[in-house]
């Protein structure tokens, strides 16, 4: 039976904080902090429990990585979304104490509950029109 795992990613220029959340139980199943390299995300996903039977959805807040991280993950075959930060649910405790670890968890919870709006990612045609 296939299950969904949501991976919240708090991304910075030098590091990624990753948090995997099982949709069925709402349980955090794995967390890590690593250097800012897409291969580290792939390794993280490959080490999730029973990865071959899971659908993985990745997400990160719009920011410094722009569309490049999204586009690379989609090229590798992953379902990835960019979340608009102003639309995400955040509780008062999280707003008082903010760190990368908690941001990754919050992103994973927002992915699982659908409490966000997706940032539009331009396709190749849009990029060509913009360049024209």
Please describe what this structure looks like:
Helix content is 33%, strand content 29%. The model has no long low-confidence stretch (mean pLDDT 87). It has five helices and five strands; from the N terminus they run E-E-E-H-E-H-E-H-H-H. It is globular, with a radius of gyration of 15 Å. The protein has helices at 38-46, 68-75, 92-96, 100-113, 124-131; strands spanning 3-11, 15-22, 28-35, 54-61, 79-83. The chain has a five-stranded mixed sheet with strand order 3-2-1-4-5. By secondary structure, the chain is of the alpha/beta class. The longest helix has 14 residues, at 100-113.
List the helices and strands and how they pair.
Elements: E1 3-11, E2 15-22, E3 28-35, H1 38-46, E4 54-61, H2 68-75, E5 79-83, H3 92-96, H4 100-113, H5 124-131
Parallel strand pairs: 1-4, 4-5
Antiparallel strand pairs: 1-2, 2-3
């Amino acid at each position: 039976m296939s299950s969904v795992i949501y991976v919240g990613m708090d991304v910075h220029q030098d590091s990624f904080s990753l948090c995997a959340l099982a949709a069925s139980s709402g349980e955090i199943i794995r967390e890590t902090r690593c250097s800012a390299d897409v291969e580290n995300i792939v390794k993280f996903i490959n080490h999730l429990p029973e990865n071959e039977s899971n659908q993985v959805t990745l997400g990160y807040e719009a920011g410094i990585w722009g569309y490049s991280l999204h586009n690379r993950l989609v090229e590798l075959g992953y379902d990835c979304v960019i979340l608009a930060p102003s639309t995400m649910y955040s509780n008062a405790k999280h707003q008082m104490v903010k760190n990368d670890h908690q941001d990754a968890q919050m992103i994973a919870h927002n992915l699982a509950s659908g409490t966000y709006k997706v940032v539009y990612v331009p396709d190749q045609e849009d990029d060509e029109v913009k360049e024209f």
